[in-house]
């Protein structure tokens, strides 16, 4: 039966920064914390480790590239909680520098998870957001660094004051199409599939906040952030921060108090608002 108990969801939280975000939310958030993983066994394993620390997240399977999985997540939340209070979009992939897959494939696959997967999850789950909900996109400074290396013409489009979701989708599609045609450099893109997907994640934040601010539900705040350089599988454990240190800014944004006016619809690192470009 549906209840109004508060609930937080963290995507890709069986390991790395997402796992530490779940751990932090279990300690700070008043309500249930849902640990999600695309692989059920890996999720259950993570759950056991947190249980051993005395923490009690709830597990639910979620693959952000699978529409059916996202819909099941939505139905679970609707049925058991009747809404959603915190959504941390943390799940992402990154090819290693030594990856041998062609750049066109890296572009398409990175974009499918990091940009389209995140956007699709938002589109299905946002209708559940309750007043005062907090949404955090774990993006990356790699997005800003990649944007800084793109052509002036592309940068002007990133900073368009009339940016819309349609324009962001168009940009991300143009990147993948030009990567497939081998013309991405000539078209002004930088050779980073991961970085470009994170440009899309950061830009979607600005548009989503504008849309949610016009929504009848009051005080919903969406921010993007960079967790810093964190020792996880993604960085082959070369990062200088622990996962709990990497979780600090995402947790700060997830726990922003009622009626926060800043950060709101912004890109944040080390708890401070940053320029995207
Ligand atoms: N580490 C850093 O220095 C750093 C810096 C800047 C930004 N970030 C961002 O921080 C976030 C977490 O990264 P991390 O370093 O913790 O990476 P990680 O250890 O590789 O963890 C990534 C998580 O995302 C999950 N995931 C991947 N594809 C998914 C999908 N389709 N559906 C659901 N979950 C999926 C992974 O699941 P599996 O276990 O099944 O693969 C894993 O749980 C990412 O958004 C990353 O871009 C990291």
Automatic annotation (TrEMBL):
InterPro entries, alphabetized: CBR1-like, NAD(P)-bd_dom_sf, Sc_DH/Rdtase_CS, SDR_fam
EC nos: 1.1.1.184
NADP is among the record's keywords: yes
Keywords, ordered alphabetically: NADP, Oxidoreductase
Sample GO molecular function, one term: carbonyl reductase (NADPH) activity
UniProt family annotation: Belongs to the short-chain dehydrogenases/reductases (SDR) family.
Name of the molecule in the record: carbonyl reductase (NADPH)
């Amino acid at each position: 039966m549906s209840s109004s108990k508060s609930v937080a969801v963290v995507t890709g939280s069986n390991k790395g920064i997402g796992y530490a975000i779940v751990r932090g939310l279990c300690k700070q958030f008043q309500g249930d914390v849902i640990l999600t993983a695309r692989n059920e066994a890996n999720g259950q394993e993570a759950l056991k480790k947190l249980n051993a620390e005395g923490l009690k997240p709830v597990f639910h399977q979620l693959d952000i590239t699978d529409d059916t999985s996202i819909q099941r997540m939505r139905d679970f939340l609707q049925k058991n909680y009747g809404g959603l209070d915190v959504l941390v979009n943390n799940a992402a992939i990154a090819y290693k520098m030594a990856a041998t897959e062609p750049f066109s494939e890296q572009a398409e696959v990175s974009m499918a998870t990091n940009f389209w997967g995140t956007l699709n999850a938002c589109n299905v789950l946002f209708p559940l957001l309750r007043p005062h909900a907090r949404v955090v996109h774990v993006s990356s400074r790699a997005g800003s660094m990649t944007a800084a290396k793109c052509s002036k013409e592309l940068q002007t489009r990133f900073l368009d004051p009339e940016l819309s979701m349609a324009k962001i989708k168009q940009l991300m599609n143009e990147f993948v199409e030009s990567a497939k045609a081998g013309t991405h450099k000539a078209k002004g893109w930088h050779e980073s599939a991961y970085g470009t997907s994170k440009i899309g994640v950061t830009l979607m934040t600005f548009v989503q906040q504008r849309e949610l601010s016009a929504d009848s539900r009051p005080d919903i705040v969406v921010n993007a952030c960079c967790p810093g350089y964190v020792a996880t599988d993604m960085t082959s454990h070369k990062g200088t921060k622990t996962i709990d240190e990497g979780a600090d800014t995402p947790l700060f944004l997830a726990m922003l108090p009622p009626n926060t006016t800043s950060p709101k619809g912004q890109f944040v690192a080390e708890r401070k608002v940053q320029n995207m470009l």
